[in-house]
Each structure stands twice: as C-alpha cells, then as structure tokens.
From TrEMBL:
It comes from Fertoeibacter niger. It is an enzyme of class 2 (transferase). GO terms for molecular function: ATP binding; phosphorelay sensor kinase activity. Keywords: ATP-binding, Kinase, Membrane, Nucleotide-binding, Phosphoprotein, Transferase, Transmembrane, Transmembrane helix, Two-component regulatory system. Its EC number is 2.7.13.3. It catalyses: ATP + protein L-histidine = ADP + protein N-phospho-L-histidine. It holds the Pfam family HATPase_c. The chain crosses the membrane at residues 142-161. Residues 232-441 form the Histidine kinase domain. This is histidine kinase.
Length: 447
C-alpha cells in the first residue's frame, strides 16, 4: 500500500500538469489562428476554437502587451489561479489532490509559458469538472495496472516462498517424522540441502542434534546390555564369594600367627565383595541402596582404606592419615569405604603410572554444618578431557582403559548422604578431592 501511494500521488500530479499544459497548447494554437486572420473571425468559429481547447477565454501577452485573444461568457467566478511557470512538486501534488477531493465543478485560471517562445505568457480560464473526470479515469487505470502487477507479484512470491521455504520445511518435517520412527538408524539423519541460509543453519543444527541423539541412544543400549551382563556376573560371583567366605572363616582358626592376623582382613575383603555384588544386583533399580547411617570413627575407616591399598608389593606410594583420633562421623561405613577406596585407588594408579614415588593423604575436619574429608595425592593431575566429564560414567576415565565408573559411583554415593563430592584442584603438583557430609539428619535410616 505504501508503494502504491508513493507511485499514485506523483503520477496523478504529473497527469494534471500535462492536462493543463495541453489546454494551454491548444489555446495557443486557437489564438494563433485568430491572429493569422487579423482578428477577423466569425463568432461561431471563435466558439468552436474555445470549445476545442476546452477553455472560456484566452489571454496572450506579447511584446509587453496583454491581449484578450478569445473570449466567451464565464459561467461562474474564478475560484483559483494556478501558475505552472513556478509550480513545484509539492504544489502540484497538493493541487492535484484538491481537485480529486472536490466534486464541485469550479472555474480556475491557468497561466503558463507559450510554446516555441510565441509570447511572454498565456492565460486561460477553464472548468475543473472535465479535469477531475480525466484524473479519475487515469487513477482507475493505474489502480487496475497496480492490481495486475500485485497479482503477478503475489504469484511469484508464492511460488518463490513455496520453493525456497515451504518445501524445505516440509522436507525437514518429513525427516523428523522418519527419524522419530527409528532414531537408532543413522541413515535417517537429515542431510542439509536448503539454499536459504537460515533454513540451512536449521538443517545443520537438526543434523547435529540427530547425530548426537543417535550416538547417545546407541550408548544407552550398550549400557543397558552391559548392565544386564554385570547383573548376571554379580549374581554368580556372589555365590562363589559366599563359598570362599566360608573357607576364610575356617582359615581364621589356623594356629599360624601370620595366617591368623591376615584372616580377618581377608574375611572383611570377601564380605565387602559379597556386599558389592548384592548392591550391584540392586543397581537394576537404577539407584544405589539407601545409606544406613551409623556413628563411627573416621580415622579407623581411613586406616583400613590405606591398609587395603598398601598391600601391593613394591609399591612406592606412602599413605598419610591426618584425621583427629576422636573425630566421629555419621554415615554408611560401607558406602563411605567404597568412596574413599575409589579415590585412593585412582590416586595410587596415577602415581604408579609415573614410575616415581608419591604420597596419598586422607584428612578429616569438621565445622558446625559439615564433616569434610579431603583426599589428595602428589600424582600428575587429571587430563583436561577427564575433568570435563569427571563424574559421568564411561566418559570421565582418567586412566587409559578406565571406564570412569569409580568417580561416578562415588559421587552418587555421596549424594545419597545429602553431601557433595568436588574436585578442589588438579595440576602438575597433584589432585585433591573434597567430600562434604552434612551433620543435619535427613531421611536416611539412622542406627
């Protein structure tokens, strides 16, 4: 509509100017015919000349003399005078709109310059009715032409939008529906082909999302299969360990003092393995068992973890226990042992891989709100990739061949206590983890 207005208004103003200029030109021709006969002309011929020019009278100024060349009775007083010699674009537009909006037939005076320099000026008197009629006809022609152009333009835009936008969007929708039927099928991932940049960006984003989702679904399927296999293995392993536990109990009655001292540790290790198998079977419910909270000294548990990790022969790793002897905490001792053992084992493996001696420290402290356990080592630190997915199963493994399950399980166990497992630092000087266990009693069972 704005384009139509910008085209129509100047056009109608130009048409009015051309119409008035034509009246002046015809009036000049009529006056020249009269001058050629030395002002001797029949009244009938004069009336015919004025009617042909569609004016009432003609005034021609030549040699500084203003002369009424042709004249006839004027039906009404002159309403306005328009001088085309000094009319600007704004004035022409304003006068054209005034004629269109005024339905009354008025008499106007029009002044212009004669053609071929046949005088100083020419002046005519005419009606606005015929001018308005011609302007309305011209406007209608412009309207019809504009309507035709609009229809053609709309059709072109429709087909262009259909080809460039609608069809690519339909293609994306078909691909999404097809992909939803079988997201594991990599052949159904969309291939970007859109020509419009925005649609191509959308297709590329959809392709990336579908690719990632397909990979994630495959990994979930493998994890589900792995979980089933682990559950079966844990079931059979539990039966085997139960039998082993019975033999370990008999070994405890041996008269050999060395065997008698090692037997309780062996029994405890086998008991933990049996318990781990049982909890692994419970993992099929997608959650760790609820922690059974008891109060126990943290230092004894830390020493037990250190003893278990120090049994390897030729180990160059030193364990440091910095836990106050009287520090009591409330937690599930078995689950907390698994957390500390996982952290200590990871640190032990990292230090051993360097071939250099090192140390692992387990420190305990507390404040009014939390019990805090810090596990640090002097190893080489975690690689950047491991830090990005540190507590994500099968993605946060720091050791070549590692699955990353240890830290994921540890974090889950700590969260089950209402606490948090954080990585404090990891650089060339070593790695430190911090376990926070709240002192406030939650909903876990307390014995």
């Amino acid at each position: 509509m704005l384009a139509e207005v910008l085209i129509f208004v100047p056009s109608i103003a130009r048409f009015r100017e051309d119409y008035l200029a034509l009246r002046l030109e015809k009036a000049q021709i009529a006056s020249l015919a009269l001058l050629a006969t030395d002002d001797m002309i029949m009244p009938e011929l004069e009336a015919e000349l004025l009617a042909n020019a569609q004016v009432f009278n003609v005034v021609l100024r030549r040699d500084e003399v203003r002369q009424l060349v042709l004249s006839s009775p004027i039906p009404a007083p002159i309403h306005a005078t328009h001088d085309l010699r000094m009319a600007g674009a704004f004035g022409l537009t304003r006068d054209a709109l005034a004629v269109l909006l005024d339905p009354e037939n008025r008499v106007i005076r029009v002044i212009g310059s004669p053609v071929q320099q046949a005088g100083l000026l020419i002046e005519v008197t005419m009606e606005t009715g015929p001018l308005r009629t011609e302007m309305l006809k011209y406007g209608l022609r412009i309207l019809l032409l504009s309507a035709l152009i609009s229809v053609v333009t709309a059709a072109l835009l429709f087909f262009a939008a259909r080809r460039l936008i609608v069809l690519p969007i339909r293609r994306v929708v078909r691909h999404m529906s097809s992909y939803a039927e079988a997201p594991e099928d990599a052949r159904r991932v969309i291939t970007p082909t859109a020509r419009v940049q925005e649609l191509r960006d959308a297709e590329e984003a959809l392709q990336m999302m579908q690719t990632q989702l397909t990979g994630a679904l495959r990994q979930k399927e493998r994890l589900a299969q792995l979980g089933g296999a682990v559950a079966k293995i844990s079931h059979d392993l539990r039966n085997i360990l139960t039998t082993t536990q019975l033999f370990a109990d008999r070994i405890g009655a041996s008269a050999d003092p060395v065997v008698a001292r090692a037997a309780p540790k062996l029994v405890n290790s086998i008991s933990r393995a049996v318990n781990l198998c049982e909890t692994t079977l419970a993992f099929g419910k997608a959650e760790e068992p609820r922690p059974r909270l008891t109060r126990f000294p943290l230092r004894r548990l830390a020493e037990e973890v250190a003893e278990g990790e120090s049994l390897a022969e030729g180990s160059a790793v030193t364990f440091l226990i910095d836990v106050p002897p009287g520090m009591m905490i409330r937690a599930d001792s078995e689950q907390l042992y698994r957390v500390l053992a996982n952290l200590a084992r990871n640190a032990h493996q990292a230090i051993t891989a360097t071939g250099q001696p090192g140390s692992i420290e387990i420190a305990g402290m507390e404040d009014e709100a939390d019990w805090c356990i810090r596990v640090g080592d002097t190893g080489p630190g975690l690689p950047p990739r491991a830090r990005e997915h540190l507590f994500t199963a099968f993605q946060g493994g720091a050791r070549k061949g590692g699955s990353g399950l240890g830290l994921a399980i540890s974090a889950e166990l700590v969260r089950g206590h209402g606490g948090r497992l954080d990585l404090l630092r990891s650089d060339a000087d070593g790695t430190e983890f911090l376990i926070r266990l709240p002192k406030s009693e939650g909903l876990a069972e307390v014995e």
